[in-house]
Amino acid sequence: MERFVIVMPVDTSAYLLPCDDGDTCKLETLQKLVGGPIEVVDSCLAGNWSRESDVEAVKLVVNEEGKLRDLQENENAATLYAYDFMDTLVGPAALVAVRGEDLIGFAKSVAESICAEWEIPLEALGEGERFQTFNPD
Length: 137
What we know:
This protein is α+β, with helices and mostly antiparallel strands and 137 residues long.
């Protein structure tokens, strides 16, 4: 099954990015997506949102140094953040499922339904891979 992570750039529509190795994305891909070292944080979605019995949780991948680098707030990602009432998320983010120690993507229909249910604007597929990264210069 082809799997996708939900990428949520700041100030533009989210898009579905196909996973690198079937189910998962490489660390390098996740680092490119968030513009630096990654941090995996809790989302408000339970594992059953993935519609798969072996998925334990749904998490957000963000830039670990985002606040230090004064990245812009990400309202779409903050909507899904488990602690949005106490804190906010900054910079681009990716929504992934957790199976064991692996961060995996979702089936396309599941990713689309998550975006629809949580009112996250989703760009049409087929526009190619895009990365929103942080440039300190």
